[in-house]
Amino acid sequence: MASFLEFEKPVAALEAKIVQLREAAGEDDDVDISKELQRLEQKSVRLLESTYANLTPWQKTQVARHANRPHFHDYVSLGFDHFMPLGGDRLYGDDQAIMGGLATLKGRKIVLIGHEKGNDTESRIRHNFGMGKPEGYRKAIRLMEMADRFGLPVVTLVDTSGAFPGIEAEERGQAEAIARSTEACLALGVPMVAAIVGEGGSGGAVALASAERVLMFEHAVYSVISPEGCASILWRTAEKAPQAAEAMKLTAQHLLALKVIDRIVEEPAGGAHRDAGTAVASLTAAIDDELEALSVLPPAELRRQREERFLAIGSDLGR
């Protein structure tokens, strides 16, 4: 059953009318409403496309958080082959918010790491809503070091509101784990491609996204803080989140112009949550393109490119 966001109410009303019309047609075989049904379906598609072509940054934030958006396990099942999960940080435990392991992408062996939010109440609690703990980032470090040792490219799928802020995470060295995970990304001698597939929140996202190629779904968001958090600091109320989102330049379109990301991956009409298969196919094709281009570069060049891309961010602002 489709789940509609607030700004999608006109689309919801039209689709409800289509459903009612289909039900009425099924009850009365003597009435031919195929033309009217076709007209309404075409109108619904046009309305959906026009709505998503003009989303505000706050609306894009809502789409990026949609509960039905593909998550890590969906990407594994729809876009990667032979996934072998590897768990544990060899220090404390196995964080379920950050998953990883060996996989194959279009015949290419890789190490795949990403956030998993879960898709129902039980799994969301188990995966801590995609908010990684120190052991999750240390697991990511272990997998990246393994990838470097065996010459395997690294692909990361970023979708988190941020690292877990609980006191137990701070006691286990959350800030240090995030910093070292970021350092591990920058030190890799193998190609690394990161994809912001939903929310890219704060250091919890950067720790897995410090790659030489950063891709982003067109309705994803990527920022140092959530719009609600920003609004609470600036205006002392989360109700100003829409204004904060506008000012933060957190959309893929803004970030491409600012050179924070390298490529926008198109989503199906109405967002990735409406057609996960098509969305995953588009993303994996883009990742494969980038890995192919990076595969010919030596380790020193890969590190140089990463260093230059991050040092260049913001350097031309104000000119």
Any overview of this molecule?
It contains 14 helices and eight strands. The chain has helices spanning 9-27, 34-52, 57-64, 72-79, 121-126, 134-150, 167-171, 174-187, 202-206, 227-234, 241-248, 252-257, 276-294, 299-312, and strands spanning 81-85, 98-105, 108-115, 154-160, 192-201, 213-217, 221-223, 263-265. Strands 1, 2, 3, 4, 5, 6, 7 and 8 form an eight-stranded mixed β-sheet that branches. With 319 residues, it is α/β, with parallel strands linked by helices. The protein has two domains: 6-54; 61-312, 2-enoyl-CoA Hydratase, Chain A, domain 1 (Alpha-Beta Complex). β5, α9 (202-206) and β6 (213-217) form a beta-alpha-beta unit. The mean pLDDT is 93. The termini are far apart. 49% of the residues lie in helices and 15% in strands.
Briefly summarize what is shown:
This protein is α/β, with parallel strands linked by helices and 319 residues long. It contains 14 helices and eight strands.
Helix content: 40-55%
CATH class category of the largest domain: Alpha Beta
Total discrete domains: 2
| Structural class based on helices, strands and sheet pairing | alpha/beta
Mean pLDDT, rounded to whole units? 93
According to CATH, the homologous superfamily of the largest domain is 2-enoyl-CoA Hydratase, Chain A, domain 1
Order of helices and strands: HHHHEEEHHEHHEHEEHHHEHH
Number of strands: 8
N-to-C span:
50 Å
Global Rg: 21 Å
